[in-house]
Design brief:
mainly alpha; 19 helices; about 0% strand
C-alpha cells in the first residue's frame, strides 16, 4: 500500500527531470531581471511546472498534507471568486496568480536547496549588473528613462530590492556551508552582487531589512549545530564584505538625510494638529457645509502628502473598508473605487484629498486583501505567513543551506507591510518559491535521499 513515499523513477520521470531542471534554472535566472526577461522567465516557469507533473503525482500525498500549500491555493481561489461581488471587476489585478506555477515547479528540487538558490542568485546578480550599467549611463532604463533610480529592467526599484535582499540572505549561508573553496568564492561574488543591488535601489526599508536580516543569519549560523567548530574565516569574510557594501548606503547615498527625512515625515502626521475646515471664498451658506466636507484644508493634505503618510492613510482607509464589509470584502478590482468612495466620507484630518490617495495599489498586501477579500482573506493570509515562517525557521535547523530562509521570509513579510507584493507576478512568484522551500524535504516515512541537504 502506498504510504506517501516517493517510488522509484519511471521512464517518464527520468525523461522529465533534466528538462525540468533546464527550464527551472532558465526561469530563476530570468525572473529577477524584469522587463522582457521576467515574461520569458514566467513562460519557462510554466513549462517547468508541466515537466514537474510526474514528480508531483509521485508526491501527491505529501503535497496534499501540507497546510501552507493548501492555504496558498485557497487564498488565490478566493481572490478569483471575489470578482463575482466586485463593483469594478474589470480592474481586478490578478497577475500575481501566476505565482501558483512555482508550486509544482519547485516540487522536484525541495530536497536540493543549493541547486535552486544558485539559479536565483545568478538572476539577481544579472539584475545588479544591469543596475550598474544603468547607473553609469551605459544603458537606458526601461521604462524609466533616463535612470532616476537604478532599477534595471524593472520599473519599480523596491520590488527589485526584494529579490536582491532575499538572494543575499540565502546565498550568504552557502558561502560558509559549501565544502569546495571554488564554489565558496562563486557564492561570495553572487552574495556581494545581491548586496550591491540592494544598495543601488535606494530603498530605505530594504536597507534596514537587509542589514537586520544579515545580523540574524550570522547569529543563526554561529549558534547552529551545522557549523564546523573552529572555522571562522569564511563567515567573517562574508559578514565583513556584505556589511561593508550595505554600509556604503550611509556614505554614498546620504543615509543620514534619508533617516532624517523619514523622521520628518512621521513627525508631520503625528504631531501636526488637523486644521479647521473652511468653505471656499465667495461660497454661499447652502454650499458651505458641502465644501467643508469635500474640500480638506491644505494643512491636512500636506500632513499626509509623503511616502510614509500615504501608507498611514491607506492602512486607515483599509480598516474602515474592512469594517464596512468584514467577511468577504468588496471584491477583486474594487480597491480604487472603494478608496474613492471612502475619501468622500473621510474627515479631512485623515487625508481626504491627498494626491494619489485613490489608487489600485495601496502598497500593503494586507490592506489590499482586507479591501478586496475581507476578513476571510486576511485570516488566510495571516495563516500562510505564520505557517511559512515556522516552516522556514525549522528548515534552517535541519538543513545548513537554508539557515537564511527564516530571516529571508520574515524580511519579505516586513516588506509586504509597506508594499503590495501579491498584486504582480514579479514579486508573488518569489513568495511561492520561498513558501515551497519552507516545506520539509520529505515526509517522516520517506527514506533519506542520496543527495540534497
Amino acid at each position: 500500500m502506498d504510504t506517501g513515499t516517493i517510488p522509484d523513477c519511471g521512464i517518464l520521470r527520468r525523461f522529465a527531470r533534466p528538462v525540468h531542471r533546464l527550464l527551472l534554472v532558465a526561469a530563476l535566472v530570468s525572473l529577477p531581471m524584469g522587463g522582457f526577461t521576467d515574461q520569458f522567465g514566467l513562460f519557462c516557469l510554466g513549462l517547468a511546472a508541466g515537466a514537474a507533473i510526474p514528480e508531483c503525482l509521485a508526491r501527491w500525498r505529501f503535497l496534499v498534507t501540507r497546510p501552507t500549500v493548501l492555504l496558498w491555493i485557497a487564498w488565490w481561489i478566493l481572490a478569483f471568486v471575489s470578482v463575482a461581488w466586485s463593483p469594478d471587476p474589470t480592474h481586478a489585478h490578478q497577475q500575481g496568480a501566476w505565482a501558483l506555477l512555482a508550486v509544482p515547479a519547485m516540487v522536484p528540487v525541495i530536497t536540493q536547496p543549493r541547486w535552486w538558490m544558485c539559479g536565483l542568485a545568478a538572476g539577481v546578480a544579472g539584475q545588479a549588473i544591469i543596475q550598474i550599467l544603468g547607473w553609469a549611463g551605459w544603458i537606458e532604463g526601461t521604462p524609466r528613462q533616463p535612470f532616476r533610480v537604478a532599477s534595471g529592467l524593472y520599473h519599480y526599484a523596491p520590488n527589485v530590492a526584494l529579490w536582491a535582499f532575499t538572494s543575499m540572505l540565502l546565498t550568504s549561508v552557502l558561502v560558509v556551508s559549501l565544502q569546495m573553496r571554488t564554489w565558496r568564492i562563486v557564492m561570495l561574488v553572487l552574495a556581494a552582487a545581491a548586496a550591491v543591488g540592494v544598495v543601488m535601489t535606494l530603498n530605505r526599508s530594504s536597507w534596514v531589512i537587509a542589514s537586520g536580516g544579515l545580523v540574524a543569519v550570522a547569529i543563526r549560523w554561529a549558534c547552529s549545530s551545522h557549523r564546523p567548530k573552529g572555522r571562522w574565516v569564511w563567515p567573517m569574510i562574508t559578514t565583513l564584505l556584505l556589511s561593508g557594501i550595505l554600509s556604503t548606503s550611509f556614505v554614498r547615498f546620504t543615509m543620514d538625510r534619508r533617516i532624517e527625512r523619514s523622521y520628518h515625515e512621521v513627525e508631520t502626521f503625528v504631531e501636526t494638529p488637523p486644521a479647521a475646515s473652511r468653505p471656499l471664498p465667495n461660497a454661499s451658506a447652502a454650499t458651505a457645509e458641502i465644501t467643508t466636507t469635500t474640500r480638506p484644508p491644505v494643512a491636512d493634505i500636506n500632513r499626509f502628502d509623503s511616502s510614509s503618510g500615504k501608507r498611514v492613510i491607506w492602512w486607515h482607509a483599509g480598516w474602515e473598508l474592512l469594517k464596512d464589509r468584514p467577511f468577504i470584502g468588496h471584491g477583486a478590482g474594487s480597491i480604487r473605487r472603494s478608496l474613492a468612495m471612502k475619501e468622500a466620507e473621510m474627515p479631512s484630518q485623515w487625508g481626504a484629498g491627498v494626491p494619489d490617495f485613490i489608487t489600485w495599489n495601496p502598497h500593503a498586501s494586507l490592506v489590499a486583501t482586507a479591501i478586496e477579500q475581507g476578513g476571510l482573506g486576511v485570516l488566510l493570509l495571516l495563516a500562510i505567513a505564520i505557517g511559512v515562517a515556522i516552516g522556514a525557521w525549522r528548515r534552517g535547523r535541519t538543513c545548513a543551506a537554508l539557515i537564511g530562509l527564516g530571516p529571508a521570509w520574515i524580511g519579505l513579510l516586513l516588506f509586504s507591510f509597506t508594499h503590495a507584493v501579491l498584486l504582480e507576478f514579479y514579486t508573488s512568484v518569489l513568495v511561492s518559491i520561498l513558501l515551497m522551500a519552507s516545506l520539509p524535504s520529505r515526509p517522516a516515512s520517506m527514506p533519506s535521499p542520496s543527495q540534497g541537504d
